[in-house]
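Customer ticket, subject: "Can you confirm the structure for Peptide deformylase?"

Message body: Hello, I'm evaluating your service for our small team and ran a test protein. I'd like someone to confirm that this is what the system normally returns, since I don't have a reference to compare against.
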Amino acid sequence: MAVRPIRLFGDPVLRRRADEVVDFDRELRQLVTDLTDTMLDAGGSGIAAPQVGVGLRVFTWVVEGEFGHIVNPTVELVGDEESFEREGCLSIPGLPFDCRRHLRVVTTGFTVDGEPLRVEGAGKLSVVVQHETDHLDGILFVDRLDEATRALAEAAIREAEWSRGMVPEIRASPHAPLRPTG
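Agent reply: Thanks for trying us out. I re-ran your input and got the following:
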């Protein structure tokens, strides 16, 4: 078991776009194993390589007992249905907030061995895939919060014991915001 330290909010690696994986080798297989071990040890549903300080486009997940990983993912948002639920992040420990996401996604990429992979997800899997893909683009889930909730998140992060009083830099997501329906 190789559990790596998880980078916390404020670490610059979390704000950089990760590089495409070009070598599907033993090091990549070890990274995927380490990501899975770290995710399970921390009790998460997903983890992206930047969260352990590695600037590569790969993440792992476990949703409803199903494990997976994807390398160099591309996400297609399917339909207009949305979810609005509590979302948290291993890099922002103990601070979940309500976040709006698309209900369905189709993700394409590769396995750790370089084989093409397509994952269709709805509900929790859709949220995890969107969350982890955001990490690969330097986006944190708090960037996707509405303005009022973002202000609450900033205050909570500032007060969190692990933040040591840092002034958080929460950005508005560069992606088109999801709008409440109904």
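A couple of notes from the result: Confidence is low (pLDDT under 50) at residues 176-182. Residues 12-162 form a domain with the Peptide Deformylase fold (CATH 3.90.45.10). Feel free to reply with more questions.
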